Amino acid sequence: MKTHLSTSKSNPSASQHSRKKHIAVIIVNWNSADCLARCVERLLGQSLKPDRILIIDNSSTDNSIESVKSSASFIEVVHRKKISGLQTQIILLLPCAATISGSL
Question: What is the pTM of this model?
Fold first, then answer.
């Protein structure tokens, strides 16, 4: 009796199937309370929810952050006292998003 052994590399191992994907979302906000609230609401409504939402607030004066702070425990806010550009904001948060797999 012959035994057939598959040597196909397309069959992922069981450990690869069980690995959880981690999702971090970065939102840059400046006086966009309505837009921010809708954005967070839609993120929380996804079938694959983020593990972390990082919001960098660029010195808003419209109470944007208060409208979403209590939406989920995994929302983190960084308040900036000085207004800076989008690129600067994202560069500031990338190290935080990159540590997501180590913090869960």
Answer: 0.65
